[in-house]
Amino acid sequence: MTKRIRKIGIAARLTAIVAVILAVFVVPWVWRVAELAQDEAKDLAWARMQASTELLMRDFEILKGDAAHYPAEGTAEYDLLRANLWRDGIDTPYYNVDTPYIIQYYDENHKRVLIRSPLMLYYYASSAMYYGIDLSGFSEQSLREMNEAFNHDHDLEPIITVYGRQVKTDTQFVFFPNRIQIAYEEWTAQMPVEETNQFCSYEDDYIRGKWIFRTDEVMEGYFDALRYLDTELRAIDGENIPDEEWAEVRASQRYVGTFQGMPYDDEVLLATAALVNRENAYGTCFHLMLPITIALYLIFLFLFYKIVRRMVSDPLVDTAREANRVSILAFDEFKPDLNRGDEIGELNRALSEMAATLHARWDSERDLEDKRQQFVSAASHDLKTPLALIGGYAEAIAQDISPEENARYLAAIEQETARMNGLVREMLDYTRLDRTDELKNRRTLNLTALVNDMLTEYAPLFEKRRLTVDIADGVRIRGDETLLRRAVGCLLENAAKYSPENGRVSVRLTNSRNHLLTVENDCEPIPETELPRLFEMFYRGDKARDRAGGHGLGLAILQKILALHGLTCKAENVKNGVRFIVCNKD
Questions:
Q1: Alpha carbon of 152 to those of 147, 149, 157, 205, 251: distances in Å?
Q2: 200-209 residue pLDDT tens
Q3: 123 - beta bridge partners?
Q4: Is the predicted pLDDT of residue 187 greater than 90, yes or no?
């Protein structure tokens, strides 16, 4: 699992983190809006309940009129009172579904009478008459089964037959059924009603407003409200209601309820409840807020992912690709974005510096390897010949030879041994100088006196040459006297060695570090391609080897000594010769 997570890109990880952070803030906000919507739904239900209560109080007072007593249950006056309380039901078919009520009063015999809000099923008959069928006398189970029967086929109006008592009001006929048939199913009311009339619908009749419960939620809310009102009335009558029952009837929170006595008659009690229509409240408060919020949430995460990919992930992928080029030593193809000012730009610049350092070291290592191979090859060549000669002479001496030949072979062995010692000594000197970073015996020297001393010491070499000298006075330099003597001696020896008899040799010393010491001699010109290589180890042109021999380490040692003094030597062809110039390294 951990390996899979590590394989997920940075953009996806950051997007997931932002998604969680946003969810922490968005979900409580949406939840709070939902609570506000629910509070608004309760406020609307409470206002509707108050309006219903006021309307019932007014209608009940008007319908009672000047009668001395309220009608007893089961009488024609009782049925007419119930029917007239619902006379506005044609214009508001869902009124008492959303706001059920119970009216309690006592008749002339002091018997308690309850009037429940009717569940009116309205039929518009082909005779242009409205028929209201009050289903409030049926049990909850019967109403559920009727609801299923009515909603079984939405395209056809079910044929309904009602048996019971019919009451005529000023505006309609109201049936209080004892039995009711819908298609081939029949239900009987809980409270028996005398069957004095019969109503049967036809195919061209239709239900006004369809079934009394427009949704299952409304139906469940209506039943919850009635249970709540019945429980409250039982409590008012003095019955001890268990806490579990109270918790059960109040758990749904689908309604708000209140009880109120009539101001002119304390024996009349109105118990009303209003269904909390969260659907409409949510629609008003949210107004597609939830899908819009989810859409904006996903769009934001998508854009965030794309931005992070563009600003972080893709540049890092490019940097990784460029770094891989460095890993395969493709330095010429390494081209990171160095113009960025952020951390990725700093990373690219650091990689660029690293690549440049590696490139320089790689080139240096390759050059060193080339020089090492050249060194081994040249050293092997220069050591092979004297060793072969020494071996041959030693083998000849081991045989029975004359004293004269023996002396000659021993002299030859001594000569070749000296030559090998000189080569090995120069190789050791070069290696020692190559490992030296700083001079230990540095002091201020009189370079004028040093050059004059070297010219005196090497005077025998110039007996058969035309030597011209131009030495400036007071030239001073900080350095190692021994090493500088060797460097100047190398230049003078090299000029004498490679110049012909009666050839010209010129030595010039100035105070200018750009032309500090110049040594020029007559000789055949050196090919331009070979001039830069004169200071390499064991490099000798063929003509130079044929004329003067040597090991090819003198000029290389010279360049090392000058480098330690901040100087360098360069060679150039001049008319009839070659010029070596010692100058400032910069």
A1: 8, 5, 10, 18, 30
A2: 876 556 555 5
A3: 131, 207
A4: yes
